[in-house]
Write a structure and sequence with these properties.
The complex is a heterodimer of chains A (168) and B (380). With 168 residues, chain A is an alpha/beta fold. Chain A is 33% helix and 19% strand. Chain A has a single domain, classed as Aconitase, domain 4, CATH 3.20.19.10. The longest helix of chain A has 12 residues. Chain B is an alpha/beta fold and 380 residues long. In chain B, the strands form five sheets. A five-stranded parallel β-sheet of chain B has the order 13-12-11-14-15, with helices on one face. A four-stranded parallel β-sheet of chain B has the order 7-6-5-8. Classes of the chains: A alpha/beta (168), B alpha/beta (380). At the A-B interface, helix 4, helix 5 and helix 8 of A face helix 1, helix 2 and helix 4 of B.
């Protein structure tokens, strides 16, 4: 997997909770695409329809607060979101995203530096968020190596499968 | 269902330790839709296939109430649960935290998981609570003080004279809502009350963990309980708590008493005290969900269920129900609900155009009677 991601920024505010990302009443849907079609509909009804593979979610503080539902990270990944860049994350969402191989990047000042629709590139290993549209660069966190390995492997389960196979 | 599906990918023929896993179904029970029924069926197949010993199906109620009741959580334990309100068990002096499906699948496969050791914020709560002011009011107030990110990644420790005097039911409420401030866990040092509560429940030996005398805290925050008014968290965030006097008079359509936060016996008792001999306002529906079978049965024996029914409440089986917008009381656009649950996010209990106010069971019951948000001290 490329350790750089690039795409259009979809901008959200502070405290986007997991009920906003995917409301509880859709969690029993069996078709993953049908579930994903409801992502973010509470605050942005056109998001799921318009977002393209490679696009990024850019948000404010405490992204993903609330429930432990992994579906919140899952639906974003399913829609092709290549990374979530936020001022800060709630911890369960943070873990869930990495576990599914969806890169999450903490970046102070990103809400100011990026507007909705900007072209954004993230160097996940170099720790740089680049607003290509505006020509602005910001530093961001780099995941510790063992977590980056989950992202590289396409998720924690893939990483564990490899480990189990190596032990067998 | 996600855990079961993910687990299949690992192609393992066993789980790490079937004795140390507890499984039950509390969301969407009994199944209100075919999709929910399929989720439940997947869960049952998983339990059967891997020989999970502690299987409670949908018989006992909401996990965060049932696990302590059944003695599955002991002081000093490290507990992980696939639900964010797993923090509840901290009331027993356990370190308990919630995680998602993949993390849980990894725990089931290996018995191991990675953690970042959190720093701790200690809340020293002092002063005698006024009548009709409950544990819920303390935690709503704390969340409003520090914000929904105020304890992100951190442990919230509740201590002080007020906490010592609090019932176990109220202590569970406090720890339950630690996640609403972003907390990794909420915890209360075990005392005589804790040990008394678990005496008849925990059968296995255990080793409680107490505070080190030289423990370092990231921050110590003093909370005045004596001056605390009943709190109401305005939509759409648990951090929007204000004293009830600021929101009194707001008309409600639904009142909900239940959930892993406030569906315990003490909660039902205070609600029944207010509803006894009174009636739910004409244009309001009140829903009461005892959080577990044990609580339901005790409430029956004490006559609380009869009180609720006579007052015009609907009493449902022990489940998460409307708290997660699953069933048993979803909201229409434009409606207002006052709820004893834990989250008032947009769309949480149904329509995104409905409003949810969070409050104690006392405030919810008082509001159900008058049809508008009401200070329960009027009924003290």
């Amino acid at each position: 997997m490329a350790m750089k991601v690039r795409g259009r920024a979809w901008k959200f505010g502070d405290n986007i909770d997991t009920d906003v990302v995917i409301p509880g009443r859709y969690l029993t849907l069996r078709d993953p695409d049908e579930m994903a079609s409801h992502a973010m509909e509470v605050v942005r009804p056109d998001f799921a329809r318009m977002v393209k593979a490679g696009d990024l979610v850019v948000a404010g503080r405490n992204f993903g607060c609330g429930s432990s539902r992994e579906e919140a990270a899952f639906v974003l990944k399913r829609l092709g979101v290549s990374a979530v860049v936020a001022e800060s994350f709630a911890r369960i969402f943070f873990r869930n995203a990495i576990n599914l191989g969806l890169p999450v990047v903490e970046c102070k000042g990103v809400s100011e530096a990026v507007n909705d629709g900007d072209e954004v590139e993230v160097d996940l290993e170099g720790g740089v968020v680049r607003n290509v549209t505006k020509g602005v660069e910001l530093k961001c966190t780099v995941l510790p190596d063992f977590l980056m390995d989950f992202v590289r492997s396409g998720g924690a389960i893939e990483a564990l499968k490899r480990k189990l196979k190596a032990q067998a | 269902m996600r855990i079961a599906d993910i687990y299949e990918e690992l192609e393992l023929d066993r789980v790490w330790d079937p004795k140390r896993v507890v499984a039950l179904i509390d969301h969407w029970v009994p199944a209100p839709s075919i999709d929910a029924a399929i989720v439940h069926a997947t869960c049952r197949r998983f339990v059967e296939k891997y020989g999970i010993e502690n299987w409670l199906d949908m018989r006992e109620g909401i996990c965060h109430v049932v696990l302590p009741e059944k003695g599955f959580v002991k002081p000093g334990d490290l507990v992980v649960g696939s639900d964010s309100h797993t923090t509840t068990y901290g009331a027993l002096g356990a370190f308990a935290t919630g995680m998602g499906a993949t993390d849980m699948a990894i725990v089931l496969a290996t018995g191991e998981i990675w953690f970042k050791v959190p720093s701790t914020i200690r809340f020293n709560v002092e002063g005698k609570l006024q009548p009709m002011v409950m544990g819920k009011d303390i935690i709503l107030h704390i969340i409003s003080e520090i914000g929904v990110e105020g304890a992100s990644y951190k442990t919230m420790e509740f201590a002080g004279g007020t906490i010592k005097k609090l019932s176990m039911d109220a202590r569970f409420t406090l720890c339950n809502m630690a996640i609403e401030a972003g907390g990794k866990t909420g915890i209360i040092e075990p005392d005589e009350k804790t040990l008394e509560w678990i005496k008849e429940r925990v059968k296995q030996p255990f080793k409680p963990v107490f505070n080190d005398p030289d423990a370092e805290y990231e921050e110590v925050i003093d909370v005045d309980a004596a001056g605390l008014e009943p709190q109401v968290a305005k939509p759409p965030s648990p951090e929007n708590s204000v004293p009830v006097s600021e929101v009194e008079g707001i008309k409600i359509d639904q009142a909900f008493i239940g959930s892993c936060t406030n569906g315990r016996l003490e909660d039902l008792r205070v609600a029944a005290k207010i509803l006894n001999g009174r009636e739910v306002a004409k244009m309001v529906r009140a829903i009461v969900i005892p959080a577990s079978k044990e609580i339901y049965m005790k409430a029956m024996r004490e006559g609380l269920i009869e009180t609720f029914l006579k007052a015009g409440c609907v009493v449902c089986n022990s489940t998460c129900g409307p708290c997660i917008g699953a069933h048993l009381g979803l909201l229409a656009p434009g409606e207002v609900c006052i709820s004893s649950s834990n989250r008032n996010f947009v769309g949480r209990m149904g329509s995104k155009d409905a409003k949810i106010y969070l409050a104690s069971p006392a405030t919810v019951a008082a509001s159900a009677v008058t049809g508008e948000i009401t200070d329960p001290r009027r009924f003290a």
